[in-house]
Amino acid sequence: MSNLEFVYTTYIKTTPEKVWQAITNPEFARQYWSNENISDWKKGSEWKHVDPKTKHVRIVGKVLESNPPKQLVTSWASPNNLADESRVTYDISVIGDLVRLDVTHTNLSEDMGRGVSSGWPLVLSSMKSFLETGKAIDIIAVKGPCKDAA
User: Per 3-state DSSP, what percentage of the chain is helix, strand, and coil (rounded to 5)?
Assistant: First the structure.
């Protein structure tokens, strides 16, 4: 395990509640991420990132903190390598008529760091586009089939 960290900030013309839903609602996440985030989002609960077509579980973790619609903290690991566990913090705040979303992914191994450093900007740009225009980026066309990372 390494102390690599990835931080991404974006500003979205929407509400904190809609950003929260985009992260935590499986049907919503599928529209911009092409995968579903599944959990009850209560502290201590398990969560998983699942391909809705194949039902392949890509990422697993636990909900470490849940304060809707302001902050969500989860652990993050490939189901094939649970020892390579990292942590993702979603901080949601209001700045004027915008929502500021800070995603901080910490305790990254070099392998996971490589994956998320290209994955998070694409996923979060797609989320922003979807929330603001109703049209997401075709992530699969840009990146190819999702690997076990962001």
Answer: 30, 40, 30
